[in-house]
Amino acid sequence: MDEPKAAKQKKTWHKKVIIFLGALFVLGVISLVAIAVVQNKPLPKNIKYGIVLDAGSSHTSVYIYEWPAEKENDTGVVQQINECKVEGNGISSYGHEPLKAGLSLQKCMNKARQVIPEKQQRETPVYLGATAGMRLLRLTNATMAEEVLSSVENTLRSFPFDFQGARIITGQEEGAYGWITINYLLGNFIQDSGWFKYIPNFKPTETSGALDLGGASTQITFESKREIESQENSLHFRLYGKSYDIYTHSFLCYGKDQALRLQIANSIKDATDSILLDPCFNSGYRRNASTNDLYSSPCISKLRIPTAPSTLDIRGTGNYQLCKRNVQAIFNRTHCTYSHCSFNGVFQPSLDGTFGAFSAYYFVMNFLNLTNEQMSLDKVKETVERHCSRPWDEVKKDFPKIKEKYLSEYCFSGTYILNLLEYGYGFSSENWNDIRFLGKIKDSDAGWTLGYMLNLTNMIPAELPYSPPLSHAGYTGLMVFFSILLVCIILTCWLSFRKPKCLHKGII
Ligand SMILES: Nc1nc2c(ncn2[C@@H]2O[C@H](COP(=O)(O)OP(=O)(O)OP(=O)(O)O)[C@@H](O)[C@H]2O)c(=O)[nH]1
Ligand SMILES: [Ca+2]
Question: Signal peptide location in the record (predicted)?
Answer without folding.
Answer: none
